[in-house]
Amino acid sequence: DIQMTQSPSSVSASVGDRVTLTCRASQDVTTSLAWYQHKPGKAPKLLIYGAFRLQSGVPSRFSASGSGTDFTLTISSLQPEDFATYYCQQASSFPLTFGGGTKVEIK
Amino acid sequence: EVLLVESGGGLVQPGGSLRLSCAASGFTFKSFEMNWVRQAPGKGLEWVSWISNSGYSKFYADSVKGRFTISRDNAKNSLFLQMNSLRAEDTAVYFCAGLYSGNYPRFDSWGRGTLVTVSS
Fold first, then answer.
1. Dihedral sign for Cα atoms in the order B116, B13, A97, B61
2. Which of B104, B106, B112 lies nearest to residue A42, judging by beta carbons?
């Protein structure tokens, strides 16, 4: 099974800050990597697919990069609605696996 | 508008059974691979099971293999999860999720989830 490791597990930041989250896969997943935003009581929301492709409707302050085993998600200027937990997920092989999540909290 | 609505959650005793349903609308359900994903209290997202668009192929997480069965009814735009021999560690919010399986697979549609609590 491919293990996904996210860091940090939580980050405190202020509105307007630039935030970078990382995700590491235990094996090469090429670019079969997606990022999701999840808020309590809501459905998770797809942000990024194919490692760096922005889902339609997602603000351009979100960007991502990486391939193989190392990936990053960057929020260029944190907005109040961005405080949430972010998950990476590999779709290279079954079982599909998620990282443990990074919680972005208000400083 | 794509809509996935889960139902069937509730309180069940250890060893018991429960059947979850997911009603889909706003897209061509029979064309999409579907999944169940869960989130235990205070924990992250965990993929549970996948079913092909035809329903003939299925995959399960090791944690539920042999106890859970995924199925679908394309005529009724519905996805199901039959959960047997439930354990306390199965307590979670269960999400129905559609998987776009083209060049860059991703869960591009999600429901809001239904809570399953396994407790005596």
1. negative
2. B112
Q: Is B84 left (phi over 0), alpha (psi -120 to 50) or beta?
A: beta
Report yes or no: B96 and B22 within 8 Å, Cβ to Cβ: yes
Three-state SS for B100? Answer: strand
Average pLDDT, chain B: 97
**How do residues A32-83 score in pLDDT, each as one tens digit?**
999 999 999 999 999 999 999 999 999 999 999 999 999 999 999 999 999 9
Residues B45, A101: C-beta atoms closer than 8 Å: yes
3-state helix, strand, coil in chain A (%, to 5): 5, 50, 50
pLDDT (tens digit per residue) in B75-91: 999 999 999 999 999 99
A-chain CB neighbours of B103 within 8 Å are 50
